[in-house]
Specification:
Blueprint (H helix, E strand, L loop, with lengths): L5 E7 L6 H9 L7 E6 L6 H6 L6 E5 L4 H10 L5 E5 L3 E2 L4 H10 L4 E3 L3 E2 L4 H10 L3 H4 L10 E5 H7 L4
Parallel strand pairs: 1-2, 1-4, 2-3
Antiparallel strand pairs: 4-8, 5-7, 6-8
């Protein structure tokens, strides 16, 4: 089967404490995305410089003041591939996250969702991460409210719905 082309997008703002581990989790995937587009909302800390320090040809950094929806839409508009994965900088991706999402696309899915591990630097963040974590029980619930921290879709579906509001 021909390998599908996947873009991974994310938005950031003031993530200097977590961005290195996040990008490492992307580049350490068993199936690395074909391109990575990160929109940084003009962080005042060292976030952008840390992203640039990776010097990976796969990473494209766009710096533009935006809210999360605007940043996601901007990142998606700047992708080259028909499949888009979306996650947040405050997460650490499982090593097989991209590969598992890709399997769903290969089976014909137009929209996929996955799980994520929140990156916690203190007790408050740990509790908030636990609350928002998509456990197996939550994934099996009906109705299930998907999290944009771990989703993928064919780019035309995003265009058809008009992007993120």
């Amino acid at each position: 089967m021909k390998k599908i082309k996947i873009s991974l997008i994310s938005t950031t703002y003031q993530e200097e404490k977590t961005i290195k581990r996040f990008v490492e989790s992307i580049l350490g995937q068993s199936r690395v995305p074909d391109e990575i587009v990160i929109v940084d909302s003009m962080s005042k800390d060292n976030t952008a410089n840390i992203i640039k320090s990776f010097r990976s040809r796969k990473i494209r950094l766009i710096q533009k003041k935006s809210n999360i929806s605007q940043g996601r839409n901007l990142a998606i508009k700047n992708t080259k591939n028909p499949y888009v994965l979306l996650t947040d900088a405050g997460c650490i991706l499982d090593k097989d996250w991209v590969k598992n999402m890709e399997k769903s696309f290969e089976s014909g899915a137009e929209y996929v969702m996955g799980n994520f591990k929140p990156l916690s630097l203190n007790e408050k963040q740990r509790i908030m991460g636990w609350i928002s974590l998509q456990t197996e029980k939550k994934l099996a619930s009906d109705p299930y409210m998907a999290s944009a921290r771990s989703m993928g879709f064919k780019k035309y579906v995003w265009k058809k719905i008009g992007g993120f509001p």
